[in-house]
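WARN  no MSA supplied for this record, continuing single-sequence
INFO  ligand: coproporphyrinogen I
INFO  echoing inputs
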Amino acid sequence: MTLSDNAQRPASSVSSFTSADFFPVEAEAASQKRRASAEAPLLAAARGDKPSRRPVWMMRQAGRSLPEYRELRKDVAMLDACFKDDLLAEITLQPVRRHDADAAILFSDIVVPLKAAGIDLDIVPGRGPVVANPVRTLEAVREMPELHREQLAPIAQGISHVLEELRDDQVLIGFAGAPFTVASYLVEGGPSKNHEVTKSLMYSEPETWHALMRALTPTIVRFLQTQLEAGVDAIQLFDSWAGYLTARDYREFVAPYSAAIFDAVRPYGVPMIHFGVGTGELLGDMAVAGPDVMGVDWRVPMDSAAARIRAALDHHRPQAAPADKITALQGNLDPAVLFAGDAMIKKEVRRIAAEADSAIDRGLAKGHIFNLGHGVLPNTDPDSITRAFEEVHLS
Ligand code: 1CP
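INFO  complex generated
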């Protein structure tokens, strides 16, 4: 099976992947590598048990704001750092040591599996991922290379270094970009404000769009499988830019592929988190795709988010047990609040904790993992981040 075989399948078979599209599932072997205790606060909160303290980590906690990160990266390009096992492990661990985080997020990027497969792209400082030859035709989709296990060997190696140092109450979160968000970089050729080239391809050439999504899905699953088999304790699927879509378009052009990814990864038995920016209108549909934990951006209060998720799952799974009609919640401090001083940080942490607890008490959510409502902003003072972590642990 090659990616071009995938791309040639008719668009009507959107979500019907076979096991041959992915690596063989090695769930047993993967579970032996994991070492976080089942009592780790993040795992307890994701399952719906009472954690020993409110777990917290921050998207983009690795890199960016930390002087020790800038020092390590001084002479190393971003993508080179992602493929050096020692370096990626050290960068992953820096924020955990500094802030007493309940989770490490693997230092990598959503374009790493594309780079590993041989697609010509770079991460340009101050800009983001830039693709040499944007993918906008069926021919270009068919030429996309397949991802092989050995191309990700340094990442698997880096994960085993991280696991050696984490405490057993701290989890390692692996991640991937969801097909829509990854496709947006491939189609636009780089970061985009409005995603107009991507949307125009979706609307005017749906066959090409579905072929691209079909081609990307196995690459993303394989990237996650590699991380899971190396021992990550949880995964997050970032659909950062899905909030640019209407719910109708999301359902038709995106959801089947994100759902196929959750289906493929579920046998590994780890918590699966889903997040996108500005996705208040999509929370229900994103939850229906199958995650255990829904990341909430800062624009929607946690209790409203929980009610939206619960309503969508109730509608979609009328016969399911009550516990399968809710998810855990992750979020949702506005990253800008970290610039606003200790009093405001404390006030907002308490408000968010109370809103999440109210949703849990009312049976609308399983648990709460504290996070930002998007990533740490580059100029954030690391001490403000530490204080926010302390405040969450007191809440
Ligand atoms: O030189 C540098 O330091 C580059 C900045 C940087 C960093 C630190 C980039 C370029 N990527 C990363 C690491 C990264 N990327 C992580 C690691 C760990 C952590 O979270 O602490 C993660 C999870 C990502 C994921 C990622 N990359 C996303 C999804 C999350 C999100 O923020 O929405 C996206 C959209 C990207 C693309 C990307 N990579 C880098 C940048 C600047 C961007 C965004 C560009 C844009 O605005 O479109």
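The pocket of coproporphyrinogen I is lined by residues 59-64, 78, 105, 107-110, 123, 125, 128-129, 175, 177, 181, 191, 238, 240, 375 (CB under 6 Å).
INFO  checksum written, moving to next record
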